[in-house]
User: Which sequence fits this backbone?
């Protein structure tokens, strides 16, 4: 090997590695239930990992090859389900972790789905609409054998949206010579999307918070809430929690945050962000940093921005009594024990933010039925499924004398393991 050769540094390291972070919790839960070694080995490895090259001619005439991924972690419970993210730093490790989280999330929500995730390594902020469309269509075309309403169903994730889903649906449909709406969820309403999908994750966060408060015997109007992230999940969570009577004392986004002990008018903040893109210069209270937001005096903390925000470093300084994980993986594995020792209840991501995939499931069902439900119907069904999932996790955690996070993993692993045992190993 030439001396100049250097192993490329892995992008995610140590506490930041999402796959390791997931495996630490998985291992703990597996040990607690004495998971059969064969099933453990089976579940540790994704069923399928695909890397595709996406050659695209940019607007300036140059041809560039992007790298795309799709990982199916498990499909014992049904076709796999999971979003596609576009980001410059997305890698196979990250997609593998997110795919596994989807397996557990779908199992906890009692959906007939396995887990998957996809990604394209690209910077959407530097791409035109036409370049994004080309990338999306080639990505979908390269994965024609993987995607399908009965096999693997993508959805939006970071930097992908309804438009991207519409392009995937159209590309797949062109090859099938018929319109197949059920191949993706998170589509625009007019081409088979579901009512209530946009608000579903935040609504689920609110419902999970209400269920936890009820267990604690605390009324929402006696609570102060801090929300990190003011995008789809954060803003809807904050809005619906304030409608339930909670006082939102802190909000933040990429531009920084605000603290106001009198409470922040969330509807005003939502309007402000609609016209100004971020909360910057919104004068909603005293300026604070995102780091400070996590440590403000409040009863409920909703991290709804990105992963690894609560770490072993700042966990000792958190004052909230309840953390509701709107984001995926906002708590590093090293922080779990610190939060438990402080007596903080954590509703884990795989339960708290499952409202999105639950309404995605409704979208898929409606596409198959060819009959669409109204929003009240959607929200009532979501409420029923979120409460059922919360109760199942709560009871599992009680029975095993463990946290809600490990309880959630145990519930999910046992369910998938049972399905695997019933189906048997085809070899
Ligand atoms: P989004 O892009 O709509 O919003 C993200 C928000 O976080 C923005 O307000 C952004 O400014 C803010 N942000 C970014 N970096 C930040 C930082 N360093 N500190 C503070 N704020 C920061 O994304 P979203 O759809 O709301 O997703 C947020 C999280 O929820 C992600 O972890 C995502 O995987 C997870 N999630 C989303 C859904 C969904 O349906 N949208 C479902 C399940 C989980």
Assistant:
């Amino acid at each position: 090997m030439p001396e100049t050769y250097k192993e490329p540094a892995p992008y995610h390291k140590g506490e930041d590695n999402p796959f390791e972070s997931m495996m630490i919790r998985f291992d703990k839960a597996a040990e607690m239930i004495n998971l059969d070694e064969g099933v453990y080995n089976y579940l540790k490895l994704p069923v399928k990992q695909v890397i595709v090259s996406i050659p695209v001619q940019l607007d300036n005439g140059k041809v560039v090859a992007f790298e795309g991924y799709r990982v199916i972690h498990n499909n014992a419970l049904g076709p796999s389900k999971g979003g596609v993210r576009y980001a410059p730093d997305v890698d196979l490790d990250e997609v593998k972790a997110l795919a596994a989280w989807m397996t557990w999330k779908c199992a906890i929500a009692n959906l007939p789905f396995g887990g998957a995730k996809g990604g394209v390594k690209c910077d959407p902020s530097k791409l035109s609409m036409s370049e994004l469309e080309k990338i999306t269509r080639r990505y979908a075309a390269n994965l024609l054998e993987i995607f399908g309403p009965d096999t693997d169903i993508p959805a939006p994730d970071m930097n992908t949206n309804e438009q991207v889903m519409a392009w995937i649906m159209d590309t797949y449909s062109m090859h099938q010579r018929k319109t197949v709406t059920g191949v993706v969820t998170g589509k625009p309403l007019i081409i088979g999307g579901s009512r209530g999908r946009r608000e579903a994750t935040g609504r689920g966060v609110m419902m999970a918070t209400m269920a936890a408060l009820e267990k604690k015997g605390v009324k929402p109007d006696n609570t102060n809430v801090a929300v990190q992230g003011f995008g789809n999940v954060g803003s809807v969570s904050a809005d619906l929690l304030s409608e339930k009577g909670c006082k939102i004392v802190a909000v933040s986004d990429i531009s920084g945050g605000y603290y106001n002990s009198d409470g922040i008018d969330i509807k005003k903040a939502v309007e402000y962000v609609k016209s100004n893109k971020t909360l910057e210069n919104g004068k909603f209270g005293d300026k604070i940093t995102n780091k400070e937001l996590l440590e403000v005096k409040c009863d409920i903390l909703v991290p709804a921005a990105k992963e690894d925000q609560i770490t072993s470093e700042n966990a000792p300084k958190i004052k909230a009594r309840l953390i509701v994980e709107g984001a995926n993986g906002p708590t590093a594995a090293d922080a779990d024990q610190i939060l438990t020792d402080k007596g903080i209840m954590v509703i884990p991501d795989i339960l708290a933010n499952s409202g999105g995939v639950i309404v995605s499931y409704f979208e898929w069902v409606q596409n198959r039925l060819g009959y669409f439900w109204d929003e009240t119907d959607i929200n009532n069904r979501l409420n029923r499924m979120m409460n059922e999932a919360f109760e199942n996790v709560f009871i599992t955690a009680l029975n095993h004398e463990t946290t809600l996070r490990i309880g959630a993993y145990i519930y999910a692993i046992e369910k998938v393991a049972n399905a695997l045992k019933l189906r048997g190993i085809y070899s």
Q: What stands out?
A: The chain has two domains: 45-191, 196-427.
